[in-house]
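Technical appendix A lists one of the benchmark inputs used to test multi-chain prediction within the project. The record comprises two sequence entries:
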Amino acid sequence: MDWAEEARDGAIIALPNGKIDESSAQDFGTKLEEAVAHASEAAAKLVVDCSGISYMSSRGLRALTLAKRKADGAGVKILLAAPNGIVREILAISRYDKLFGVTDTLEGALAA
Amino acid sequence: MLVRFWGTRGSLAVAPTAASIKGKIARALVAASGRSFADEGEAGAFVEGELDFATGGTYGGATTCVEIEADGDGSFILCDFGTGSREFGINAFGRMAQGHKRVYNVFMSHLHWDHIGGFPFFGPAFDPNSHIVIHSGHADAEQAFRRQQEEISFPVAFDWLRAKIEFVTLTPGESYRIGGVNVEVMEQQHSHVSYGYRFTDDAGKTAIFSTDSEHKIESMEGEADVAAFFRDADLVVCDTMYSLADAVSMKEDWGHSSNIVAIDICHEAGAKRLALFHHEPVYSDDDIQRMHKESIRYEELTRRDQPLEVLCAYDGLEVRL
């Protein structure tokens, strides 16, 4: 899994790329929590641009939950943007679309 | 090896209501679209072949009881004494009348009431010729069984039971030869601890019984140990009571797992089949069927080299390995 971040329009945008499973979930979780810290320092929201994620297993989903707990404590809002069809289905099947705000596009998350 | 499910609900036994049966019949009649059937056999074939399971059947409502029928030493092998053990006991009497050995090797996941509450109604416990060996990781198993039959809770005292009843404490991480099969034990996370079991017969067929096991979000790395315990299993019977979202939020620390985590661990373990189990008592047949379909889809989306067949346990299901 690759990772990039950028700051734009009042948000820290996280750009993970690849699959998130038991081999990459720990790294994904660490990077997410670092991004939460960056967002907190910038008084910004954190938008995870999911367009580069091919699929996410339960480890990845639960890493999102751990990051959200840190974010809630820091007053940082997390949004998931532009998941592909597979990730969108996984978010629905796991009911994680009830735990996280999900937008179809990155622009939609930045505007939310 | 044959795995037979006598009870597949968690927490509390449930029963269908008149309204739910009426709903099934109405849906079936609509699906039949005015067709007539010559007899019950023809109608039964229509139910079997053309109706979904939630309409034409039911996942049942008895609590946890799973039988492992292996070519072992001829004894019965059972997992947990939920309310499903009442029907199992009735069936066992018929088999004993035909010559089945009157020995029961029972493996307890834990001692919560949905897993022991069928024992006071287990007919063979009244049979002076039956020998019941209750294996458990809990040293206080006998205390739990005796307490539920104290007079304040039940009119028949434990000491009135006429079968020879023994309690044996097993140690997690050890391997045993019981009932003519190899048995391994794993400690699991649940209130007052629970235990999972790995059964392997001499033909090499392996069934896992892992219920009431929470996979904590803070210790996901430990799931590698669970995957190792499930390795290459022919069937994994796994607690899939909650959605993953519920399991990490409002139902965290309730001691149960989700379909998503079970599938991921089974993929990692190279298991061949997973039976979704310990169904939430508030779920209707439609809810459980939906969860089953979603689980099949999730497995497809995250499949690795080998497909994992995802079954949904119901009272009466038999799976031959």
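The mean pLDDT of chain B is 97. Residues 2-14+58-320 of chain B form a domain with the Metallo-beta-lactamase; Chain A fold (CATH 3.60.15.10). Comparable benchmark entries are summarised in Table A2.
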